[in-house]
Amino acid sequence: MSQPSPTHPAHRAPDTAAAEADPPFGPDLSIGAGTATPYEDYVQASVLTHLQHLQSDDPGEMVFLVTTQVMELWFTVIVHEWTTAADALRRDDLPVAMDALRRSTWELEALNAAWKPLARLTPAQFNAYRAALGEGSGFQSAMYRRLEFLLGEKSASMLVPHRGSPQDHAALEKALHEPSLYDEVLRLLARRGHPIPETVLRRDPTQRYESDPAVEEVWAAVLAGAQDSELARLGELLTDVAELVWRWRNDHLVATRRAMGAKMGTGGSAGVAWLEKRARKNVFPELWTARSHV
Ligand code: HEM
């Protein structure tokens, strides 16, 4: 990230540095002088911190916008981890897949903690800038949609809001047709000798994943077996992911219920009633139902 600076004692030839009475303690202030700092080159902080275009005069809007932007960044990181995990599973590289999934659980924790500043918005506080949002809604988040697609929650109709943004639309179209993270997990289970039905292995990846009794039996056998086996640990890691996604959905639901009761959403849905239905969906369903049979 930073290039050595010839003027800083730490970066001079050893004999010159030795001649200095005191070794350097503070940072080298000459780094980046006269040009963008190496930090700026890497982080692009000046871009990131100038993307807050507020739509109202309400002082509470800033944290609403920034929380949303922070969550978009976390969605991006998590999509990256799950794509890494899916690719690794396809190559039978379980250690790389498990590392990416484990990192994603910590990132999901951080994502969920980001609800804190919005969790207790009152309707009067939210109303102060709600109208300024127009028809904007998190429902239109392309990165969140990719995250849901990776979980197996596919839906071609969810591409419709993005038809005006070719880049987002193309990324979603690709993700729609690719096997989800869970599809890759089930293919791996089959390659390891577990009886996953052909109908599941050859399913149309553009369709939402539906729970299957034979897959439930496979997970029940894995979860009942050696607790330290690779597949049992993979099953628990996926359950952690599923639980944390469920928590995000529920924290969103409760924050929405507090901030706007049963009003319609800015994205045109029934609001809380629609979000309740979404939150009821089980991520990796058989990993939950199999537990009754262990
Ligand atoms: C307390 C503030 C918030 C309220 C009142 C709220 C309200 C809603 C409502 C009513 C919907 C349903 C769709 C609609 O008709 O608009 C929705 C969907 C959504 N919101 Fe929020 N939201 C809030 C904060 C956030 C934040 C900070 C994010 C972060 C990106 C977010 C992301 C989403 C996503 C991804 C959906 C779609 C969920 C799905 O497809 O299942 N929301 N929101």
UniProtKB/TrEMBL annotation:
Domain of life of the source: Bacteria
The protein's enzyme class: oxidoreductase
InterPro entries attached to this UniProt entry: Trp/Indoleamine_2_3_dOase-like, Trp_2_3_dOase
Region (Disordered): 1-31
Any one of the GO BP annotations: L-tryptophan catabolic process to acetyl-CoA
Residues noted as binding heme in the record, renumbered to the chain: 252
Cofactor(s) named in the record: heme
Residues bound to substrate: 130, 266
Keyword Metal-binding: yes
GO MF annotations, alphabetized: heme binding; L-tryptophan 2,3-dioxygenase activity; metal ion binding
Pathway field: Amino-acid degradation; L-tryptophan degradation via kynurenine pathway; L-kynurenine from L-tryptophan: step 1/2
Keywords tagged on the record: Dioxygenase, Heme, Iron, Metal-binding, Oxidoreductase, Tryptophan catabolism
Cofactor descriptive note: Binds 1 heme group per subunit.
Catalyzed reactions: L-tryptophan + O2 = N-formyl-L-kynurenine
EC code: 1.13.11.11
Gene3D superfamilies with a match to the protein in the record: 1.20.58.480
PANTHER family: TRYPTOPHAN 2,3-DIOXYGENASE (PTHR10138:SF0)
Family: Belongs to the tryptophan 2,3-dioxygenase family.
Oligomeric form and interacting partners: Homotetramer.
Biological function: Heme-dependent dioxygenase that catalyzes the oxidative cleavage of the L-tryptophan (L-Trp) pyrrole ring and converts L-tryptophan to N-formyl-L-kynurenine. Catalyzes the oxidative cleavage of the indole moiety.
The protein's name in its UniProt record: Tryptophan 2,3-dioxygenase
Organism this protein belongs to: Streptomyces noursei
